[in-house]
Every structure is written in structure tokens, then in C-alpha cells.
Design brief:
Elements (H helix, E strand, L loop, with lengths): L33 E8 L15 E10 L9 E7 L4 E3 L3 E10 L8 E8 L9 E9 L7 E9 L7 E8 L15 E11 L1
Parallel strand pairs: 4-10
Antiparallel strand pairs: 1-2, 3-5, 5-8, 6-7, 6-9, 9-10
Length: about 190
Amino acid sequence: MLLGGQFSVGKLGAGASASSQAITVTVPSGASAGTFFLLACADDTAKIVESDETNNCRAAAVQIQVQGTGGPLPDLRETAVGGPPSTIRRGAGFTTTDTVANLGSVPAAASTTRFYLSSDGVLDAGDLRLTGARAVGSLGPGVSSGGSANVTVPKNAAVGFYYLLGCADDTKVVAEAAENNNCIASANRVEITR
């Protein structure tokens, strides 16, 4: 689908290039919901006769999620998180595992799962985010992605007992049918020591 917005390029000499600043583009109001790559296409109106007309477009490295007009949305949820040790020192690291599922009826774009320490097993502002994350690729409806991530406990973490939380799409790049069901707590707690 063609987006509204463009970048005008002036005359270019041999071997020259032109770069744009940020360009605002608009998704058509009748666009269907789905996951898409953004393409930028030089000389898209084909006004210039070129020696090669097949190399004018380039795709962005990541996909974007288009909601569409009132259409269905994906729903990413953590279905499992595990791997916390029974005890670990502040500033130390460990490997955790998790599984993310798309329970929606349309594909979900690539996302990032991040991990937290929580005293009550429910994500809130007082929880500590661990360094380290897991990249999750695009997921079709009903598809799951399992994997592992190396995470590190902050050096300033208070000693005590915590649940490990895995939170799907924690950077909020995917528009979802439900945004409040992305996290799950580990069954066992980990003790943070000095």
C-alpha cells in the first residue's frame, strides 16, 4: 500500500547521494490490519531512465503493526517463564527461559521480551527490570516462540525474595487486543543476597 508523504530528491551527479531527515508518512484510512515491512523506493514515479530499474526499493529491517480500521489485533502473552536460581547475589547474572504466544487472530510484528524482579508477581512501578532481553520474531496467529536470555540483577537491588517476571512486548511496539496480559511470574521465587 502506498503511504502518504514523500521525499523530493534534487539532481544527483554520478556517485552522489541524498539523505532525508525524518519524514512523516500516513497510513491510508482504509488499510487492512496486519504486519508489514516499510519500503522506501527511489524514483517511484519512474521519471528517470536508469541502467537498472530493479534495485530502487529497500525494506526497513523491522516490521510494523498496522491496526486497521476497527479490525482484529494480535494478542501477545507470556505463557511460561523459568530458570531463576534459588539464590543469586546482587550484580550477578543467570539464564532464564520463556515462551511468548500470539493468541490473536492476525500476525504480530517482532517484539522484545524483558524480565523483572517482583515481590508480589504482578508488574508495577516498584519492580526492578533486569538487564538483558530476548528478541521475538514476528508471530502468526496461534504461533509461539520459546527461547532463553542472559539477564543480570541490578547491583542496587534490595536483598529479599522475588518472583521473576517475563513480559512480552515490553517495549510496546505491537498494538494488541489486550495490553494488560503480557506478563507472567515464575512459579518459584529467587532470593537476592549481598
